[in-house]
């Protein structure tokens, strides 16, 4: 195993700056999957479970959504919420049992609500309730992508080390070109965030600046 005294951020920045970095590239048509941008994870002023990496993250997500709708491409939002018993969180909900625990994000609670700063078109956009990290796991997402004949999945939301990574791995496994706009994902600690951006970049996805993603969309 290679060892290093560099921080996770420094290692990621070296990977990002490498001009020979290989890419999967964009395809012909994309879906925007916004993963769990709900108050439990976005409202740092209200909940200990929330996090922020780029302060403009939600604005960027809104801008992406606007471009996707103009192209008549699918926009998907996921969120998590659980039964009073928490049994639908399965083993994932058994490590802790505090007010901040995952399985205690209850239906109709403030923690389960999408952030009010988001622009969600509830007539055109698709909203999925998910229970596990990947947006593909036991949701109709795969069927939606087949219907729309997309070949590219663009992921936003959080956390980078959790649901973003899980969805990216499954997206690649299902044969999709997977794009992660760096400024549109967030995590609780920079170490987790940048370590997983590095791993995603090297293995599972193209981690790109938001400007490059927007430029591609504008030229469609």
Description:
With 220 residues, the protein is an alpha/beta fold. The protein has a single domain, classed as Rossmann fold. The protein is 34% helix and 15% strand. It has seven helices and seven strands, in the order αβααββαβαββαβα. Strands 1, 2, 3, 4, 5, 6 and 7 form a seven-stranded parallel sheet that branches. Helix 5 links the parallel strand 4 and strand 5 (177-181).
What structural class do you assign from the helix and strand content?
A: alpha/beta
Which CATH class is shown? Answer: Alpha Beta
| Individual helix count | 7
**Cα end-to-end separation:** 43 Å
The gyration radius over C-alpha positions equals: 17 Å
Query: Largest beta sheet, briefly?
Result: 7 strands, parallel
Instruction: Tell me the number of strands.
Output: 7
Average pLDDT reading? 97
Percentage of residues in helical conformation: 25-40%
Q: What global shape is seen?
A: globular
Q: What is the count of structural domains?
A: 1
Order of helices and strands: HEHHEEHEHEEHEH
**Name of the CATH superfamily:** Isochorismatase-like
CATH-derived architecture: 3-Layer(aba) Sandwich
CATH topology: Rossmann fold
Residue runs with pLDDT of under 50 for 5 or more positions: none
Q: Tell me the strand percentage band.
A: 15-25%
């Amino acid at each position: 195993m290679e060892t290093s005294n560099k921080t996770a951020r420094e290692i990621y920045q070296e990977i990002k700056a490498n001009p020979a970095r290989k890419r999967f590239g964009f395809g012909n048509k994309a879906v925007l999957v916004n993963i769990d941008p709900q108050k439990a994870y976005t409202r740092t002023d209200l909940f200990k479970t929330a996090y922020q990496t780029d302060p403009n993250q939600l604005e960027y997500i809104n801008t992406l959504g606007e471009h996707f709708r103009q192209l008549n491409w699918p926009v998907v939002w996921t969120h998590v919420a659980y039964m009073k018993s928490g049994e639908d969180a399965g083993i994932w909900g058994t490590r802790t049992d505090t007010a901040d625990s995952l399985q205690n994000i209850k239906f109709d609670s403030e923690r389960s609500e999408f952030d009010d700063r988001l622009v969600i078109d509830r007539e055109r956009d698709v909203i999925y309730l998910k229970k596990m990290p990947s947006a593909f796991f036991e949701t109709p997402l795969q069927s939606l992508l087949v219907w729309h004949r997309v070949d590219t999945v663009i992921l936003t939301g959080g956390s980078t080390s959790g649901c973003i990574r899980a969805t990216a791995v499954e997206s690649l496994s299902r044969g999709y070109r997977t794009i992660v706009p760096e400024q549109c994902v967030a995590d609780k600690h920079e170490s987790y965030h940048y370590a997983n951006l590095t791993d995603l970049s090297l293995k599972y996805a193209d981690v790109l600046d938001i400007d490059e993603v927007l430029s591609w969309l504008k030229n469609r």
